[in-house]
Structure formats: structure tokens, C-alpha cells
Amino acid sequence: HTFGISQSSYRYESKHSAENEQIADWLIRLMFFISEKRQRLYLEPQACLPHLPAVGTDRPKKRIVREKPEPLAQPEQVNHVWSMDFMQDQLSTGRSIRLLNIMDDYNRESLGIEIDFSLPSQRVIRSLEQIMEWRGKPCVLRCDNGPEYISHAFLAWAEKHHIKIEHIQPGCPQQNAYIERYNRTVREWLNQYVFDSLQDIQVYATQWMWFYNNERPNMAIGGIPPSYKLGLPSTSDAI
Fold this sequence. Notes:
The protein has 239 residues and is α/β, with parallel strands linked by helices. It has helices spanning 7-10, 18-43, 45-48, 121-135, 147-150, 152-160, 177-192, 198-214, 226-229, 235-238; strands at 81-90, 96-104, 109-116, 140-143, 164-167. Strands 3-2-1-4-5 form a 5-stranded mixed beta sheet, with helices on both faces. It is elongated, with a radius of gyration of 37 Å.
């Protein structure tokens, strides 16, 4: 009575009836049945899931290890491969413009930067023909699968001049790595300045292109300007 508990409570002993013992027996059987099912599920999946292949008969396929793409081969002579690609930017007015970059992969020389609001396939052809007048004809033109590069007019023009068009695979810009690297260099001055008109940006692009070809060291070709690889004199030599 010290803790206020009746003696009949803590002295009471439960009496198991036959019915309770039967229920307990069925509960134990049920637990063993569930445990056995679980073991079969983990150890013998084919016994519980007939539609699955037996263990060891059809192992999961190994994950394919994708190797890094091989470096782009460097042409061994001038006019062997030209690369070209488009870039997007805008004027101070907010109007969008396009840039067509063309370069010679041999010495990473910038051959042209065409800028306009729209540059359809005919403009691409005209730009290439203007460059070919002083540079000569390329053997291969490497480009992506943009509509300007797969148009009937462009492909017919290339076939007429016996120029091979090498389209890179969709989603694989590394296959045109030279022009992609060049684009990042162009982007540096595009992000640095704001231009009011097409004429302003075209003038600056022309001046920058001359600097890029004749003054700026290019580490990809040994730290010399692109014109040096052709044996052309630079401004410093002329002075």
C-alpha cells in the first residue's frame, strides 16, 4: 500500500486459455511463413517472380565507359580545312545580330568575320567567295548542321567548286574545336564593348582580326601569331 497499488494487481497472474494458445501458435506460424517468403525473395527471385530470368543466366550489362574524344587532327598545309561557325550578340538598341566566323585550321588564322542581322546561306556563300579571291580555295569546310550549311544552295555551291563539306555530329561541338576556341576569344571583346550599329561593330571586328592574325601570340601554334606560320611579316618586322 506504500505506492497506492492494490495487492490484487501486482499479485495477479494471467491464465492462458486454450483459445489464446491457439492464436499464439498461428501468429508464430505466420511469422515463420513471412520470414521464409522474404528469404526466397532475396535468394531465389525466380521462385517468386517467374517472369524474371534466373540468377546467373542473364547478368546486367556493364556500364559503357566513354573515352574522351580524340584531339582534332591539325591540317598539314594551308587551305586544307577551314572551319566556320555562327555567334549571336546584340547592339545597344537590343536588336540581335549574327556573326559568321571563318578560320583556317592550319595556322588558326581568322579569315573573315561577317556581321549582319541575318546571314542566310547566300551570304555565307558570298563571304566564302570573297575570301577565296585572295586566299585560294579550301579542300574541306567544317561546320555544324545549321540550316545555312545544309541548304540545297550551299551544298550545290560546294559541289560545284569541289569542296567537301564536313558536318560535325549534332551535339558534338568538340568536333569543331578550333573554331569553338576562336569563338571564345571573339566573345571576350564582344562582352567588353557595346556597339550602336552594324558598321561600328564591323569596323572594330576588322581591326581586331588584323591584330589577332599579326600581333597576338597563339599558344596553339607555338606562341606565334597565325601570320608567322605562313612566313608573312608582322608589323614589328616591318618597323
